[in-house]
Design a protein that fits this description.
- This protein has 216 residues and is an alpha+beta fold.
- 56% of the residues lie in helices and 17% in strands.
- The protein is built from eight helices and five strands, in the order H-E-E-H-H-E-H-E-E-H-H-H-H.
- It has a five-stranded antiparallel sheet.
- The chain is globular, with a radius of gyration of 18 Å.
C-alpha cells in the first residue's frame, strides 16, 4: 500500500485479497471484488467462473447484494436464498448455479463507497458472524490498496464512475421496461432483446437503450 500502483498491479493486489479471503473464510465457495470502471460496475477479481457469473448476473439484472453494497456503502447479507424476497430477478439465477447464501461488504473511503467484496456459498447459513468479521477486515484492506493506487484522485474518480454506473443502470432498466411493455415480455426476455439489438448493430448496449427511450 506504500507503493503507487498501476491498474495491472492494483488488480493483481485485489486478486491476492480475494485469494486470501477465500482461504480464511471456511464457508466461502467463491469471492470477488466489484469496482466502478469507466462508468460501469465490473468485477476486477474473482476466485472462479461461477462467482464471475454471479456478479455479471447482478450487473445484467440491475439488482443484487454486490450492487447494493457498492452503491449504498452498507453490508448486505442473504443467509438463505430459498426464502430471500429481495432481488427477485437475480436470486433465481444464483440458485440455478448452486449458490444459496451471499454476503457483500462495501469498500469504503470514509463514508463514501468505493466498491464491494462479495462472498458466495453453496450452502445456506454458511456465512456466520465470524465470516462477516473476516469479510469486513479484507474489505478494509482492499480499500487501502485501492486508495494507494492514486491517493489524491481515486476517491473522486471512483465517485464519478459510480455515479455514471448508476445512471447507466437506470437507462438500461428504463429501456428494459419499455421493451417489456411493448412486447409483453418477462424482464430476462426484454434484456435479451436489447443485447441482441446491440450485437446486430454493433452499438454499445447503453447507446441502444438510449435510442429505445428516445423513440418512446
Amino acid at each position: 500500500a506504500r507503493t503507487t500502483l498501476t491498474r495491472s498491479l492494483l488488480d493483481a493486489s485485489l486478486r491476492l485479497v480475494v485469494v486470501m479471503s477465500q482461504a480464511v473464510m471456511r464457508g466461502a465457495d467463491g469471492v470477488s471484488i466489484t469496482l466502478p470502471r469507466d462508468g460501469e460496475l465490473r468485477t476486477v477479481a474473482a476466485s472462479n467462473d461461477v462467482v464471475l457469473q454471479m456478479d455479471h448476473d447482478q450487473y445484467d439484472t440491475g439488482e443484487g447484494p454486490c450492487l447494493d453494497a457498492a452503491t449504498h456503502g452498507e453490508l448486505f447479507s442473504a443467509k438463505d436464498l430459498e426464502s430471500e424476497p429481495r432481488w427477485p430477478l437475480f436470486v433465481p439465477r444464483a440458485r440455478s448455479h448452486g449458490i444459496e447464501s451471499i454476503m457483500s461488504t462495501p469498500l469504503m473511503s470514509g463514508d463514501r463507497p468505493l466498491g464491494a467484496l462479495n462472498v458466495y456459498s453453496r450452502a445456506p447459513d454458511a456465512l456466520a458472524s465470524h465470516e462477516q468479521e473476516w469479510a469486513t477486515l479484507f474489505a478494509q484492506e482492499a480499500s487501502r490498496v485501492l486508495l494507494a493506487a492514486n491517493p489524491t484522485a481515486t476517491v473522486d474518480s471512483v465517485d464519478a464512475d459510480l455515479r455514471e454506473a448508476l445512471r447507466s443502470r437506470e437507462v438500461i432498466a428504463l429501456a428494459q421496461g419499455i421493451i417489456m411493455g411493448r412486447r409483453r415480455l418477462q424482464p430476462d426476455e426484454a434484456y435479451r432483446v436489447l443485447t441482441e439489438i446491440s450485437r446486430q448493430t454493433s452499438k454499445p448496449l447503453l447507446h441502444v437503450c438510449t435510442e429505445v427511450i428516445s423513440t418512446t
